[in-house]
Amino acid sequence: MLMAVDIGNTNIIIGLLEGERIVGSYRITTKAAHTSDEYGLMLTQFLALSHYAIDDVDDVIVCSVVPKVMHSFRASIIKFLGLEPMVVGPGVKTGINVRIDDPKTLGSDCLADCAGAYHTYGGPVLVADFGTATTFNYVDGAGTIRSGYITTGIRTGAEALWGQTAQLPEVEIVKPDSILATNTRTAMQAGLYYTFLGGLERSIRQFREEIDEPFQVIATGGLGRIFADDTDEIDIYDPDLIFKGMAAIYARNTR
């Protein structure tokens, strides 16, 4: 079994894979203050919940955009699982070429997402990841990342809204029943939802205008589910895209 770990700014997501089949998925809050022992305890508990033992884990692959967490988490894998994890980054074969001004600036999570989309659905493809930040990356038919953009994630924008205004409450990010809100909470939910939905639809249409070939749009990330069923601009919502990407990358670097 392969353990795939995505260390993001908001959450650490752990996937357990047998071949291409995801047999378990767990999520914890990203906190730099956790020790390697705390992370290790969580890993062993997640394995037990999926009815696995430590010895069932053959290898571990990690992609991380939070360097200050990486040291403790890597140490937990070595200490509790007895394995040196493969880390997505320089020197690791991905099957994806990167043709942007500075390839080193592309986040390893975006790279894994693109690998998952291209190897699962083919290209060309526009990969949209709705996380702490919202990212779009375009992969052409030859498996080359050509362009992309980064903008505020909806939750990040929402936190700025209620964090910077004294009388606005924290609200759940959901699609409201109507845009015709009659109270502060639903007014905020409608404003957040439809502003973000309109922005992502306009962004995808702009990609279509400037790219001279048809492409699929693959969405992922926890908040992508909110919008995927409410727009024709998204072709597929795949919550496990990053795990599929890490599995594909691991297969190219099997040790």
UniProtKB/TrEMBL annotation:
State the EC number(s). 2.7.1.33
Which species is this UniProt entry from?
Bifidobacterium panos
Q: Summarize where K(+) binds, as residue positions.
A: D129
| UniProt-listed InterPro entries | ATPase_NBD (IPR043129), Type_III_PanK (IPR004619)
Catalytic center at which residues?
D109 (proton acceptor)
Hey, which pathway is this one from?
Cofactor biosynthesis; coenzyme A biosynthesis; CoA from (R)-pantothenate: step 1/5
Described purpose of this protein according to its UniProt entry: Catalyzes the phosphorylation of pantothenate (Pan), the first step in CoA biosynthesis.
SUPFAM superfamilies registered for this protein in UniProt? Actin-like ATPase domain (SSF53067)
**Single GO molecular function:** kinase activity
Give the encoding gene's name. Answer: coaX
Reactions performed catalytically: (R)-pantothenate + ATP = (R)-4'-phosphopantothenate + ADP + H(+)
Q: Where does substrate bind?
A: G107, S108, D109, C110, T184
Subunit (UniProt): Homodimer.
Q: Which cofactor does it need?
A: K(+); NH4(+)
Its protein name is Type III pantothenate kinase
Does the record's keyword annotation contain Protein transport?
no
